[in-house]
């Protein structure tokens, strides 16, 4: 019986293909390109941050105008009222003279957004009215004593 002769390449197994297999690389490249295109489209279509357009104080409170509706959190503290708007804007402050007496208000930038707080000598009760008007979102904060 003769064995296989490996010296003259006359054996029964096929030689290894010297070309690299590109199928896995091709599929990985397609997946990566799809991911990058999806991220770019997402960045183009995502809305920008909410912007504070204007603050208008009136006798019993403050009217705030935003570019669109901002997420917000309200908090009643001892004699004070605070609202955190997840938006960007300029810091402002002022005083109101109304039924609640003299009320100081301040709008300041924080890490999480704009913080609007009211402080008075007596505890405050706040009511919020909001709605869309002329393509912008308005929040009207009206104050009264408790």
Structure classification: alpha+beta
Cα-to-Cα separation, first versus last residue: 109 Å
* Spatial sequence of strands, sheet with the most strands: 3-4-7-6-5
CATH architecture tag of the domain at 52-145: Sandwich
| Shape category | rod-shaped
Provide a descriptive summary of the structure in words.
It is a single chain. With 146 residues, the chain is of the alpha+beta class. It has a domain at 52-145: Immunoglobulin-like (Sandwich), CATH 2.60.40. The protein has 1 helix and 9 strands; from the N terminus they run H-E-E-E-E-E-E-E-E-E. The N and C termini lie far apart (109 Å). The mean pLDDT is 85.
Please give a handful of descriptors for the protein shown.
alpha+beta, 5-stranded antiparallel sheet, 4-stranded antiparallel sheet, 1 helix, rod-shaped, transmembrane helix
């Amino acid at each position: 019986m003769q064995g296989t002769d490996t010296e003259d390449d006359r054996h029964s197994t096929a030689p290894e293909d010297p070309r690299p297999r590109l199928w896995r690389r091709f599929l990985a490249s397609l997946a990566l390109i799809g991911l990058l295109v999806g991220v770019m489209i997402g960045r183009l279509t995502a809305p920008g941050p909410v912007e504070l357009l204007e603050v208008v104080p009136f006798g019993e409170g403050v009217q705030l105008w935003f570019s669109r509706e901002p997420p917000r959190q309200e908090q009643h503290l001892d004699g004070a009222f605070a609202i955190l708007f997840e938006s960007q804007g300029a810091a402002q402050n002022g005083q109101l003279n109304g039924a609640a007496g003299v009320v100081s208000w301040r709008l300041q930038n924080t890490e999480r957004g704009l913080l609007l707080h009211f402080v008075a000598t007596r505890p405050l009760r706040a009511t919020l009215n909001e709605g869309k008007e002329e393509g912008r979102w308005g929040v009207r904060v009206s104050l009264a004593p408790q």
